[in-house]
Queue: 2 jobs
Job 1
Amino acid sequence: MKLATLKNGTRDGRLVVVSADLSRCLGAGGAAPTLQAALDDWRAVEPELRALAETLERDASAGEPFGETKCASPLPRAYQWADGSAYVNHVELVRRARGAKMPESFWTDPLMYQGGSDSFLGPRDPIVMPTDEGWGIDMEGEVAVVTGDVPMGVTAEEARGLVRLVMLCNDVSLRGLIPGELAKGFGFFQSKPSSAFSPCAVTPDGLGGAWREGKLHLPLLVGLNGEPFGRADAGTDMTFDFGQLIAHAAKSRPLGAGTIIGSGTVSNRMEGGPGKPIAEGGVGYSCLAEIRMIETIEGGAPKTPFLRFGDAVSIEMTDADGRSIFGRIAQQVRRAG
Amino acid sequence: MKLATLKNGTRDGRLVVVSADLSRCLGAGGAAPTLQAALDDWRAVEPELRALAETLERDASAGEPFGETKCASPLPRAYQWADGSAYVNHVELVRRARGAKMPESFWTDPLMYQGGSDSFLGPRDPIVMPTDEGWGIDMEGEVAVVTGDVPMGVTAEEARGLVRLVMLCNDVSLRGLIPGELAKGFGFFQSKPSSAFSPCAVTPDGLGGAWREGKLHLPLLVGLNGEPFGRADAGTDMTFDFGQLIAHAAKSRPLGAGTIIGSGTVSNRMEGGPGKPIAEGGVGYSCLAEIRMIETIEGGAPKTPFLRFGDAVSIEMTDADGRSIFGRIAQQVRRAG
């Protein structure tokens, strides 16, 4: 089952059920007005939403045309956004780019930061910034899950059963602000502006065999200004699965329904090394920081600039037949005001 | 005007307007069912809430009895909880207790972390933990504000005008988990379990002259197991006012209505030094970490233990006549399960 939120001038938008091929949708207002309302009462609402999804698949004339450009993020705002860094390969590369060493414990103890969740961008909304000088605007292509209510102290195995929905994410990062913030010791804040999520959120069963062991085993297609930039497999080199990430988040407190947990930037190793651009036969990258780090190692300095006003980023995932699963995140960087 | 949220079995509770003396309340359902709904549409809803408040003050028989024990936190869950550390004195002491030096920039650049906001505790709810061994359970007495919609890049002066409500907070901290988390560089997560807020949230004009220049100029009364533990003045030694804290939070993104911004642990210096317990003529402390640090300096080791199962913490603020302004946070630490 696929769900989306259409913009309608309200803060939380309007929940719709979307056909598997993303062509049509049916308003879900009779079941739940918003996705948060559905998650708050999932046991009662889910069967009604699934009935709408069945109608869409059975009757090709049912519903209205679905437009990704009309979408807000599935949760336009959420009560929690906790982003892991499960591709430890990425963490190691970014740290090396900053000249910082990575502790060995990072391979066994998940990294996770608390993100801002009050004002997500829609999947086609621009990334609006006051400056593109020095802030180091970067995309981060990720997979994210939405949970039901999670009790404190949940095990990773139990947590896997509490994944309600799966989405893609652009965790926008301001690389130029990160070193200063991390030096202060309180984690990211200004360096992590509003994130954007894919038009559709999909139930795990809607992903078929690609969803297993708490991971999504498909390439994440990242584009930059219309060119393929990354196609790293989200199921490969994911050191911690979503069950482990949720359990980490719930160690000392329960998590409310509608909590979003992110995977961190998807990143694959290549022959034990840091990987290569797509043009050179590699799977490329899901953020600019990685390629800049490799350029620094190879040539002494980064060549690829961070995002400038006018640059366009896309994030998508397709099935075996090349059809978009979640719809496409496609954002342009624009100057504020 | 004072607002509170009564528990009613739903996730967001039921909004009520409370009389200035905290004796009675009137349901606000006709204006807005929940506090978040009121904040989402404040311009339209505020006059209706104020009319209810006037009825309560004019007619001593109006309303139902108000019970602090029936309260959830004013926002039982929120879209954002960003906690500053505006009492730099406190930051310096806690760092010294950890053997860490504080950079000079901390006096000019606010510290702030993104907190979890999906599952706040009610003001009289227990603090439930699986263990009190090694986790270092501590209270942190704070002042917090709730904002309206804040545009990206807001100035501190503009931000002061966007403070909708003021509350007290117990920002529960797990001191034993902090050093390990901060060493990982991503800030607090497991070390900051669910916070609790005061029964009432009060509009700035409801605080009279005590609210000025973006600060609340009254002592924060912290109790431990029935004994006075702290009475530091929240308007003294607050290096950054709430306007500055909000502007810091909004540097690279807008803040959604209902964002909660915390002051950090209230802490006063004394004669240039770290202060003394109330019993020794000082204003005491708003958390255990501070007194433990001073004990360490004076005697080589801390004497005051962190909170154990059964310990009780209270946080309150009274007006010139000794009447409670926000109602009392009063929580006991209990074992999970």
Job 2
Amino acid sequence: MDFRVLHIHDFNELNLSFNGLFFQHSKMSVKDDPESAGVQISTVHAGVHAGAHAGLHGLTGQRSASIALSSGGVWQDKSSSWSWMLSGFLLMNVVILGCALVSGSVFNALQVTSDHVQFFLIALMIPTVVWMIFYKVCTFREDEAVLYKDVHAGPVWLRGGLVLFGVCSLIMDVFKIALYVGYAHCDSPVKIAFPVVQAIFTLVQTYFLWLHARDCVQVQRIITRCGLMLSLATNLMVWMTAVTDESLHQTVYPSGNVSHSSHSLTVRASASNGDNNCECSYPACSIFEDAYYYLYPFNIEYSLFASAMAYVMWKNVGRVVDDHQPHEHRFHLRDVLVGPVGGLVVLVAGLATFVVYEVDVASDEQQKKEAALTIYYIANMVTVALMTGVTVAGCVIYRLERREHALGKNPTRSLDVGLLMGASMGQFTVSYFTIVAVLALGVDGTVNALNLALSVLTVAELLVQNVFIIEGLRREPHHESRRASVFSNLLALQAQEDRRSSGVLTPRGSITVTAHKPLPWKRKLLKEISAFLLLSNIILWIMPAFGARPQFDNPIGTDFYQFNMWVAVVNVGLPFGIFYRMHSVASLFEVYLKS
Amino acid sequence: MDFRVLHIHDFNELNLSFNGLFFQHSKMSVKDDPESAGVQISTVHAGVHAGAHAGLHGLTGQRSASIALSSGGVWQDKSSSWSWMLSGFLLMNVVILGCALVSGSVFNALQVTSDHVQFFLIALMIPTVVWMIFYKVCTFREDEAVLYKDVHAGPVWLRGGLVLFGVCSLIMDVFKIALYVGYAHCDSPVKIAFPVVQAIFTLVQTYFLWLHARDCVQVQRIITRCGLMLSLATNLMVWMTAVTDESLHQTVYPSGNVSHSSHSLTVRASASNGDNNCECSYPACSIFEDAYYYLYPFNIEYSLFASAMAYVMWKNVGRVVDDHQPHEHRFHLRDVLVGPVGGLVVLVAGLATFVVYEVDVASDEQQKKEAALTIYYIANMVTVALMTGVTVAGCVIYRLERREHALGKNPTRSLDVGLLMGASMGQFTVSYFTIVAVLALGVDGTVNALNLALSVLTVAELLVQNVFIIEGLRREPHHESRRASVFSNLLALQAQEDRRSSGVLTPRGSITVTAHKPLPWKRKLLKEISAFLLLSNIILWIMPAFGARPQFDNPIGTDFYQFNMWVAVVNVGLPFGIFYRMHSVASLFEVYLKS
């Protein structure tokens, strides 16, 4: 019989009463002393659970904290479940209604015009903007509105991407306004109102998410949850209509043959520019029209980014503490060479290929077009094959390495991994659809064979890269404790003591003071691999993000799945693929630092 | 300063060491003494969390248990995350590849024939069956393979439904075999092999899920997780192909006009019966063909049921204990009258309407058809309106009632609520699509107005019913402790003591010995409401389950969204709607017992 309860300190600092549902919470110095906060909190956990079995069984770590501690003092679980449910229903209803509207506008453009859809979007955007302002005012007024900021939420790449794509969206809106001002004399005013409202929405939302993406809000939880779900719904609807618009645009004016576009789609396209008799009042109109369609993909990305951030914020509402202490890592390239150099070579070669491809594929000669495709496929195949090999090596090293897994549930980390896995589905979908198409039509010709090989390799690469990133993120980081505080030293001592008495290694035991020693070969190799993968992912991001669309330049997809279906698959899948690559770059950077 | 740790008993019964990652666990009498198990377990939680802050912060309730206790003694988190990831990837890849194949078969029936799709399904079913037999052998051999059964998983309605729909699927397979034996001389052998394999798969899977749906498996976790995800993927693919087949069948031979069916779909339909020159070798063929198409909806339901059960099993792999004690409730109708009687009236009236509708709507006269639709809509509207009103009243009573919420995270309960919410999306989708169609075409004529009203009412009913059920399930049950054990009496005494000393009511305080007193009015009303809703949901289940399809009898949907789109929406949405109604009936029964 061997039972020990370790380290229950500081009970006196907490004022908790465990009778029934009500908990009271006096001052907790989360902000003032982040080092000790982690320990305090796990003490609360222990306390909550010890008390819990008086009738309240099995709270999860995160929720127990959010139930136990609240800024207002007494807090009932009722309102929480109520607000989750309410906001969930709000999202569900808005999105389903939106789907019906968009489907109607696609399949019956005469009865559901784009005006109706845009009116619906305006009706969503205005309340969202109003709520964001309300939120700003609320959190500004109350001191205790945001007790804690989730350091993992809203990382810099997400916020940076949001601003970048937001700016592109704004330019798109300006072009749209300019275009529809030209049609103002004969088209509906909704056409001008929509881009104006969208521009305001984009501005306010970007500002809002930039500042508040990390907030774990404590006040007005019901309204905040509903507001966040409303903005998630709005972004999803903007995404859906943008994808539909772009797909219809490509279907009506495809680069090659127009044979597949159905009657209703043509009607839609003409309806979207008003009546056929309606002419623009100034000559530069067509330039604006061409220009804004090029900016659609950025708007699609913007909506995806904003959706992801709103969802993370929604998950964080009411969260008080996170027992995951952020570790400080320094970025330096001291010990690595081959990885970054190899990655740079791939990056530069990829950029060169991209330029050649974009120039040649626009050519009218069929032969030049095929040559461009061949070059594109070969360059990508080499990149992806290298990445796959290197990643497999990395996974093997993880197997060899006996580094501990970071135990404990980190909600933001799980969310992050979920987003990574989810986003990879876009690329998977495009690849599998390509594989089926090529195999079914029979592999004849080099271009098709290369296309097939690239798709198969991409599937393999996505699988192993996901495994590599997830494994990498889940490992305990190697601490380079130059800034070791008194507290963590105490913990380390304690851990060593435990180890001696029990013969088992604790995670804290890995805290060592290794300031300038060269890295062991495994860590060095992992750093090389991460650096190489990071740079390779950048080039795989650049190509689709800046307009390479071999899926349309190669006619196999459109031939096999009729045009509409293929356009839908690619236009839904590719933006997720782009999101996935950006997310991978950020995650690989973290893996690099941790290794 | 007021801190108490209540009721930490029995530490000596547990052999836990908290140093680092490894936990050892000796015998725990979960099975032998269910009454005390709940308390023991929450004690473990307390201990785990108390120990956790030595380095492992913030485990959730469920995961902490699954990490802390394992049958084998030492257990590493590594394999768990690996098996989650691996099985997740398996599901993702199989389903996406399947999607690509099915899309290919729809949009390019010449290159991807139904033979290819069926071959793919056979290639999924055989490994699934092999795995299920392997699982059976494994758990049979090892005593400690299943330490704990989740009493909430695989409830009787789910298993009953599975068997019912499984039998129908088997009959369908027999019909298919009989049909394709007639074509054997000129069609591919895959056509016969597929229903044979599917019949074996259905038999084995029904047997497997009937016996093992509640298992929380401890051995072979990686293989088990992957096996369960494989069977989930297989069921999803069977569901997808069945929906596609049925939709194509309806598109090619619609009851009304055939104007919308496209060229490729016609090709597909003829291809699915072999070449056009291929003739059946015996005369009864066409009867079998007609018959098996009527059984498709049951096969679709079967796949949904099996998917839900496989998913719940997957979630339960490695789970050792549940801190939610099952409460014993007795079913009796002593105190209620109005609810059940009202419900029965609705049920009988509904059945009568259903019979009249089915007879009249098959008529060729347009007027008779419209009359049938009118009757159907009115009967449903009255039912749904009554349900909405009654449910709102129920929600108000919940607000008035000061019954405690069952705190603590119950994973099975959350899963259950998730399934309920998810399944309701099917009905939401059909309703919202109908609303948009009717509004866009303009409401002219009684039938359309009724259709619109019914759809709006259905949306409202779904919303309030979901709220009512979720609130009802989350309340602490009223204990009727006729079988109060010594242990619970002790707890009650303890609770009363606490109450006296602290002035706060504990949930345990509600344990009273109210054997035959009449119920208080709030509880009585809640029981009446649940009973009424239960019976009303049964009639709303019967109508679509046994073939009422006003969505196709009323031409508005097919007119507005072209035929293919509408068929897809209805064929995906309705089976979920049927699942939702069955799930609601079961949940309302539980709410009735708890009230």
